[in-house]
Structure formats: structure tokens, C-alpha cells
């Protein structure tokens, strides 16, 4: 029987159309820094910094360090000139984006059931956002007070999905072998890739993202409600061995 469950957040525990959310995020953020630099140039630098995080596999650089290094090498301003505005955005504007999500009470029921059964829990969301933004989303999902062992945020993470290093690092932190972990997510590539390094996988249906290739093993699947039923009744990959 598995000993730990890793949960993706966006589109999994927090139902949403990720593409729409990101478009809204960028359209709201860009004007906030217009008094500092050209918004279009800012977006280019932001995307370049994000791309750098996706590519990085250096074990001694957090995603935050990688982002800052790339972003600040492109923009014509210093960190102290723009970071306070970004921090204010995440503190005041980002929380208003909750209407772009479709929170469900089933998310908390799933996580609480897993906790009650003794699983170690981790929020394995792609750590390309600051801690503030990720914890706002946990609040929207109604699970901000759950005692997760790990929540991957860009200040503390060294890798991103779909790198195997990302999943192996979480397993190492949990002190559990990959074979004893289950990855729950809605992304056929970024989440199901965990199967390549030994984790079992559960695909949450409803807001599935599938780019077609590469194709990875899916051990079990269903809606969040169906997952809750399987978990509670020890069915599928949640069966007692």
C-alpha cells in the first residue's frame, strides 16, 4: 500500500481552466508595472524567467534564484525598483482571481480522507509561482489549514515539472521510496510523467491537459468525486495490499 500522496493543485484540487487563468493573470499584472517599465517588455522578461525555471536542473539554484537571474538580466531596472510592486500585486490583486476557479468541497474531503488514513501529503504544484500566490490558491481550494508535509513553492524548490528530479526530490524529502507514492494530477505530461520514476499515478478528469506526446502510464483515473469514493473504499490504486 502506498504511504504518500502528491496532489497537483490547479485543475486537480482546484478546478480551473489553467490557460484562462494565466491569461487573466498576465493581463492584470502587466499594467501594474507600467509606471516602472514598458508592460510588453516586462511580460517578455517574465516569460523568459519562467522558461528558465522550466529548463533548470541545477541542484544548487532554487527556482526563485533562476527566475531572478534571468529576469533581472533582461529588464532595465534593479530588483529594488520593481519587486515591491510585484509583492503588492500578489498581496492585494492576486487574491481577487478566485472567481476564475471552480472550488469544490470534494477537494477537502479527498485530502482529509487521505490524512485520516495516514498518508503523508504533499502539494505538488508546479513551483513557478511565489509562495504567496500558491497559498492563496490553497485557500481558494479550502485546504490551506491541512498539515501538508510539503508544498512546492518557487522560493524553496529546485526543479519543475516535468523533470524527474522534481518528483524524486519530493520523495526524498518525504523519506519515502517513489514506488510507495501516488501522484494525483490532471496533466497527462507534467503529472503522469511521475510514473517514469516509479510513482503510481491517478489522472483526475474534468480539466485534463493532454498535449498528445509524450504519453505516460496512467494507473487509475476518474473525477475528483470518483477518486474520493475509491480512496474511501480502498479501491483501485488505493486498495490495501
Task: Summarize the structure in words.
With 241 residues, this protein is of the alpha/beta class. The protein folds into two domains: 4-17 and 102-238, HAD superfamily/HAD-like (Rossmann fold, 3-Layer(aba) Sandwich), CATH 3.40.50; 19-98. Helices cover 41% and strands 10% of the residues. It has a six-stranded parallel β-sheet with strand order 3-2-1-4-5-6, sandwiched between helices. Strand 2 (120-123), helix 6 and strand 3 form a beta-alpha-beta unit. Helix 2 (39-55) runs antiparallel to helix 3 (63-74) and helix 5 runs parallel beside helix 8. The chain is globular and about 60 Å long. 34% of the residues are buried.
Keywords:
Rossmann fold, alpha/beta, globular, 241 residues, single chain
End-to-end CA span:
5 Å
Would you tell me the structural class of the helices and strands? alpha/beta
Architecture of the largest domain, according to CATH? 3-Layer(aba) Sandwich
By CATH, the superfamily of the largest domain comes out as HAD superfamily/HAD-like
Number of helices: 8
Number of β-strand runs: 6
Indicate the proportion of strand residues: 5-15%
Spans where pLDDT lies below 50 across 5 or more residues: none
Number of domains: 2
In angstroms, what is the radius of gyration?
18 Å
- In this structure, how is the largest beta sheet organized? 6 strands, parallel
Order of helices and strands: EHHHHHEHEHEEEH
Helical fraction: 40-55%
Offer a concise description of the structure.
The protein contains 8 helices and 6 strands. The chain has helices at 18-29, 39-55, 63-74, 79-93, 105-116, 131-141, 164-174, 224-232; strands at 4-7, 120-123, 150-151, 181-185, 200-204, 220-222.
Amino acid at each position: 500500500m502506498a504511504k504518500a500522496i502528491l496532489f497537483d493543485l490547479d485543475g486537480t484540487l482546484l478546478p480551473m481552466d489553467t490557460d484562462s487563468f494565466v491569461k487573466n493573470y498576465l493581463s492584470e499584472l502587466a499594467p501594474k508595472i507600467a509606471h516602472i517599465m514598458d508592460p510588453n517588455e516586462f511580460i517578455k522578461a517574465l516569460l523568459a524567467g519562467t522558461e528558465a525555471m522550466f529548463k533548470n536542473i541545477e541542484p544548487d539554484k532554487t527556482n526563485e534564484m533562476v527566475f531572478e537571474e534571468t529576469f533581472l538580466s533582461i529588464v532595465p531596472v534593479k530588483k529594488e525598483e520593481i519587486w515591491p510592486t510585484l509583492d503588492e500585486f500578489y498581496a492585494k490583486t492576486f487574491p481577487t482571481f478566485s472567481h476564475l476557479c471552480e472550488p469544490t468541497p470534494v477537494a477537502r474531503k479527498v485530502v482529509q480522507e487521505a490524512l485520516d488514513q495516514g498518508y503523508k501529503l504533499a502539494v505538488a504544484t508546479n513551483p513557478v509561482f511565489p509562495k504567496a500566490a500558491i497559498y492563496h490558491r490553497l485557500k481558494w481550494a479550502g485546504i490551506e489549514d491541512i498539515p501538508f508535509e510539503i508544498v512546492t513553492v518557487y522560493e524553496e524548490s529546485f526543479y519543475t515539472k516535468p523533470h524527474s528530479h522534481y518528483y524524486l526530490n519530493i520523495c526524498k524529502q518525504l523519506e519515502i521510496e517513489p514506488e510507495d507514492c501516488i501522484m494525483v494530477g490532471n496533466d497527462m505530461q507534467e503529472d503522469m510523467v511521475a510514473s517514469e520514476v516509479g510513482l503510481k499515478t491517478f489522472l483526475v478528469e474534468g480539466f485534463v491537459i493532454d498535449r498528445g506526446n509524450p504519453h505516460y502510464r496512467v494507473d487509475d483515473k476518474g473525477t475528483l468525486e470518483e477518486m474520493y469514493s475509491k480512496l474511501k473504499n480502498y479501491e483501485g490504486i488505493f486498495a490495501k495490499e
